[in-house]
Specification:
The complex is a heterodimer. Chain A has a domain at about 5-100 and about 165-250: P-loop containing nucleotide triphosphate hydrolases (Rossmann fold), CATH 3.40.50.300. A 6-stranded mixed sheet of chain A has the order 6-7-8-3-9-10, sandwiched between helices. A 4-stranded antiparallel sheet of chain A has the order 2-1-4-5, with helices on one face. Chain A is of the alpha/beta class. In chain A, helix 3 crosses helix 4 (about 120-130), helix 3 (about 105-115) packs parallel to helix 6 and helix 4 packs across helix 6. Chain A has helices at about 45-55, 85-90, 105-115, 120-130, 135-140, 150-165, 180-195, 205-215, 235-240, 245-250, and strands spanning about 5-15, 20-30, 35-40, 65-70, 75, 90-95, 170-175, 200-205, 215-225, 225-235. By secondary structure, chain B is mainly alpha-helical. Chain B has one domain (about 5-210): Methane Monooxygenase Hydroxylase, Chain G, domain 1. In chain B, about 85% of the residues lie in helices and about 0% in strands. Chain B is built from 6 helices and no strands. The longest helix of chain B has about 35 residues, at about 5-35. The radius of gyration of chain B is 19 Å and the shape is elongated. The chains are: A alpha/beta, B mainly alpha. The interface of A and B includes residues 208, 252, 253 and 257 of A.
Chain lengths: ~260, ~220
């Protein structure tokens, strides 16, 4: 197997919230058309890192990001770049499904409309829902409120919403933690399908999920006063069978505490 | 300690595996003694021990499956559980060879001794020691000892070939020894197979400790 192309390069990324450091000099490459999972205990900087990829930390006033995120040969933190444009290219799916209190159709159409989409909206809505494996379940009730969908369906709707603006990367922050096991499996299956077209980065607390769905795994940890360290990054299969570092082994086998 | 329950369960499982190896060792010893003495009570003992060996093997498999189901182990935990299942099956098969040896001794019956008792003892001791050391290597996670078991297997193979020739010559020289001799070739083969199984266990130990599936040098 050949190594995939790199789609995102994190270079010496550190993040501070005010004077508090939450991510410490993190560098690694994200492969194109791969699922990369980010694991580690609470408070080790996983979600902060995920938000660094599409400049969502810009929305947190005290957050200061140093280092570079290279995407298509360009540092996304270049001041002249529009963060909204970057967020179209790297969509985010959150822990709790957060559909707009609007119809299923409007949830999908909203982003493209704002972005100035002038093509066939019906077709775009259908394609997005097809890709997120929701179309067959909602095609006869597109005008119904999105809030009437089940949690698992809402999460797939949020994925469809992210896909509608034609991103290249999908960032997922614990996308299954509020879902039942069947909906979780549906999302995981979806991720396997989506990675053929997109690159996916997922933060998860579910170790088995990381082992099941991801190609690469990055393990983060705090060591004493050193917060947000990337301890180990590599093939998921290797991390979960023979990690290089004892800290990784201790974490994935539950030896902390 | 968050995983005390899991660690205790793993320790209990390993203790059961050690018990299994002790039963198997006793079986090899009794089966060998029955080949030398043709004492029917020893043959019965080996047969009843084999039932116990089978039951304990099933118990180990069930307990290991239960831990996999409930603890979803990864990394070294998963390797130890897979190794325990694998090794218990190897031990169970060694028990079957011991039972085979006991059956051979019942086929031979109290026929005249054809002068190979020292060879039988030698092969039995070497194969049994290999089995014991492979388990000791497991308990102590001792790769060097496991490697020495793997190396002993060639010694046993050489012994098997030499002794096979001795039997063959004995049968050529004395046609009355053919039936007895033929049965003993089976017995020698069983000892040789016990060694192979012990080698498999030792290879598992190397895998368990190093994560490498096979030693590339062997």
């Amino acid at each position: 197997m050949t190594d995939p192309q790199t789609i995102i390069q994190a270079k010496e990324i550190s993040v501070h919230y005010g004077s508090k450091k939450v991510l410490d000099n993190v560098s690694f490459d994200i492969g194109e058309n791969e699922v990369t999972s980010i694991i580690g205990p609470s408070g080790c900087g996983k979600s902060t890192l995920l938000r660094s990829f599409n400049r969502m930390n810009d929305l947190i006033p005290s957050a200061v990001v140093s280092g570079e995120i290279i995407f298509h040969g360009q540092n996304i933190y270049e001041p002249h770049l529009d963060p909204t444009e970057i967020r179209y290219q790297m969509g985010m799916v959150f822990q709790k499904p957060n559909p707009f209190p609007k119809s299923i159709y409007d949830n999908i159409a909203f982003g493209p409309k704002v972005a100035g989409f002038t093509g066939d909206m019906d077709q775009l809505v259908e394609e997005s829902l097809q890709k997120s494996a929701l179309w067959d379940e909602v095609k006869d009730r597109l005008k119904d409120s999105a809030l009437a969908l089940s949690g698992g369906q809402q999460q797939r709707l949020c994925i469809a919403r992210a896909l509608a603006v034609e991103p290249e990367v999908i960032l997922m922050d614990e996308p299954c933690s509020a879902l039942d096991p069947i909906s979780t499996l549906a999302i995981e299956q979806l991720m396997r399908e989506l990675k053929k077209q997109y690159s996916i980065i997922i933060v998860t607390h579910n170790m088995q999920q990381a082992a099941r769905v991801s190609d690469k795994t990055a393990f983060f940890m705090n060591e004493g006063d050193n917060i947000g360290l990337l301890i180990e990054y590599g093939d998921t299969q290797k991390i979960f069978s023979q990690p290089e570092h004892k800290t990784t082994e201790d974490y994935i086998t539950g030896r902390f505490g | 300690m968050v995983r005390q329950h899991f660690d205790n369960s793993l320790n209990e499982l390993q203790t059961s595996l050690i018990e299994l190896s002790q039963l198997v060792e006793r079986s090899i010893s009794n089966a060998t003694a029955s080949l030398l003495s043709h004492d029917p009570s020893l043959i019965e003992r080996v047969e009843s021990d084999d039932d116990e060996i089978d039951d304990l093997t099933d118990f180990i498999e069930q307990s290991a499956l239960n831990l996999i189901r409930t603890q979803q182990p990864v990394a070294s935990d998963l390797r130890i559980l897979m190794s325990i299942i694998h090794i218990s099956v190897e031990l169970e098969r060694i028990g079957d060879y011991a039972e085979g040896l006991a059956h051979i001794s019942s086929y031979i019956g109290p026929s005249p001794n054809i002068g190979v008792n020292s060879i039988i003892t030698q092969m039995s001791e070497l194969s049994s020691t290999m089995m014991k050391n492979s388990i000791l290597a497991l308990v102590n996670r001792d790769v060097a000892l496991a490697q020495s078991v793997i190396e002993s297997d060639s010694e046993l193979d050489v012994l098997y070939k030499q002794n096979f020739k001795v039997l063959l010559e004995g049968m050529l020289n004395d046609s009355n020894a053919i039936e007895h001799g033929t049965y003993l070739t089976w017995a020698f083969h069983d000892f040789e197979r016990i060694g192979d199984r012990a080698e498999n266990i030792a290879e598992r130990v190397v895998y368990l400790v190093t994560g490498n599936n096979r030693d590339s040098s062997t």
